[in-house]
Write a structure and sequence with these properties.
The structure holds two protein chains of two kinds.
Chain A: H1 19-24, H2 28-39, H3 42-58, H4 69-83, H5 85-93, H6 121-128, H7 131-140, H8 143-154, H9 159-166, H10 170-192, H11 196-199
Chain B: H1 7-14, H2 20-32, H3 34-54, H4 63-86, H5 94-117, H6 121-140, E1 147-148, H7 152-158, E2 177-187, E3 190-199, E4 202-210, E5 217-224, E6 227-233, E7 237-243, H8 247-266
Antiparallel strand pairs in B: 1-2, 2-3, 3-4, 4-7, 5-6, 6-7
Helix pairs in contact in B: 1-3, 2-3
Classes of the chains: A mainly alpha, B alpha+beta.
């Protein structure tokens, strides 16, 4: 270990931030947002983010400078969530790829991939402008689908980064994104047309 | 094969994940296919709407300040030693430095030896808390284990491909003890096998993690929230068991599991 004199210079007065703070604090809103979505409880989310923050701070020595810090700290958040009570419950609820359907009782084949032909973009736009409906639909998603859609669309992560955070292959990331969007479309459609019997009668 | 672009390709288009060549091919198809163009537009609209709807929660105003304070406290705690050295008198002799260096080396050696023999109490306390929390969560859940079986030949293979290590389960269990199943979980961010046993009406969680190559040790008893916690370490595994059953019966089960690891290592390859 080299003892460099400048390392021990008495710091000047005034606010001074560490490299960790410089990297982590700007991500706090994103971490908190994802944490509330996953835990579905602001108090749990605050605990989750604080634990993530402390784990990341203590393990910052293992972070390789120049690599993706955002993916690194989101991975810690996700693993911390998995060990939390709500995370454990979520993992046990859906453990198989086949089970990654939204938590509803509607039929599974409303929009098989080869036959996706939704309404016109104008109608889609009207539905998507209903933010509350979209948020309600997102709440219906199974946790593995919700987390992938949050990382992809909200956090604007690339597939490779998402694969790093979730510790799954890129192919699985693509598959989950496709399922998540298909589920959202389905949920939004159902929210517009609550039942098939009603759907026929609303046209005029 | 369908004439239309697959959903994965449409998603890759809107997510900007295609290479230039792939994008050119996709665009060529989209230029002549209203069906796929409509779907691509729908996916794109959905993506932007989800991005807006997903930014739903904002942290409390004081959270950033609290975390900044937390970080600065942690950092200043780590920097305390160098700062104190900077305040040493200028006449600190070379003998002093040599003595200090020797002291540091001795302390470092002691630390390494101690670390090899046992984990620090803080780390162990954290582990005990996490283990108990997970055990309580398991008890609180009404959902069954991820793998339900009393057959060790079913439970052990279930973990293949899920955890980066393997372990053995004892063939003969103590009386009134049954294997209920297992879960895949995480402890300290490491993938962990949670084996679920019943001793009479008492539930037991045995957490099996990858070892750190340290020498084999037997953990002493710890009580936490009314639960008994014990375990052992081999070169390859770290095992922690938690239950509210009487300690002797838990020790018996842990001993069988430890013996199963030893027997596996003793078997000719």
């Amino acid at each position: 270990m080299t003892l460099l004199p400048w390392k021990y210079a008495i710091p000047k007065s005034g606010p001074r931030t560490s490299p960790f703070e410089d990297l982590a604090l700007p991500l706090l809103p994103s971490l908190y947002n994802v944490a509330v979505w996953l835990s579905r409880n602001p108090a749990d989310a605050e605990d989750l983010v604080q634990e993530t923050f402390l784990k990341a701070l203590r393990g910052f020595g293992t972070f390789e400078p120049g690599t993706n810090f955002k993916a690194w700290i989101f991975r810690i958040l996700r693993n911390t969530y998995l060990t939390s009570r709500s995370g454990l419950a979520a993992v046990r609820t859906v453990s198989l790829e086949e089970e990654l359907e939204p938590r509803t009782d509607w039929g599974p084949n409303l929009f098989p991939e080869a036959a996706i032909d939704l309404r016109t973009p104008e109608v889609n736009l009207m539905r998507l402008s209903d933010q509350a409906a979209l948020q309600a639909a997102m709440e219906e998603l199974a946790p593995p689908l919700l987390e992938v859609i949050l990382l992809c669309d909200v956090e604007e992560m690339k597939y490779r980064e998402i694969a790093t955070v979730l510790e799954i292959p890129i192919g699985t990331v693509m598959s989950r994104i496709a399922r998540a969007r298909m589920a959202l479309r389905r949920l939004l459609t159902v929210s517009v047309t609550p039942s098939k019997s009603n759907a026929g009668g609303t046209g005029s | 094969m369908s004439d239309h672009l697959s959903l994965a390709v449409l998603n890759a288009v809107v997510d900007g994940e295609l290479s230039e060549d792939q994008l050119a091919i996709a665009n060529q198809h989209l230029a002549g296919c209203p069906h796929c163009t409509s779907n691509a537009l729908a996916q794109s609209l959905l993506k932007s709407a989800t991005a807006r709807a997903g930014r739903r929660y904002t942290p409390p105003p004081d959270l950033r300040e609290r975390f900044a304070l937390l970080a600065s406290q942690e950092v200043s705690h780590r920097q305390a030693s160098p700062s104190q050295r900077a305040l040493l008198p200028a006449g600190f002799s070379s003998y002093g430095w040599a003595a200090a260096a020797a002291l540091v080396l001795i302390c470092l050696g002691l630390f390494v030896v101690q670390r090899g023999m046992r984990r620090t109490s803080a780390e162990y306390a954290g582990l005990v808390t996490e283990v108990c929390d997970q055990h309580i969560a398991t008890l609180a859940e009404n959902s069954p284990p991820e793998v339900i079986s009393s057959d060790r030949h079913t439970v052990k293979p279930w973990f293949q491909g899920k955890i980066p290590f393997s372990f053995n389960l004892p063939q003969n269990l103590p009386g009134d003890t049954t294997l209920d199943g297992a879960n895949l979980t995480y402890l300290h961010n490491q993938p962990t096998a949670q084996l679920l046993y019943s001793i009479g009406r008492h539930r037991v969680s045995v957490f099996v993690q990858q070892g750190d190559g340290a020498n084999a040790t037997r953990d002493s008893w710890t009580d936490h929230s009314g639960f008994h916690v014990t375990g052992f370490r081999t070169r390859d595994l770290a095992v922690v068991a938690v239950s509210d059953v009487e300690p002797a019966r838990l020790t018996d089960l842990v001993g069988r599991i430890e013996q199963a690891q030893a027997e596996a290592q003793a078997q000719p390859k």
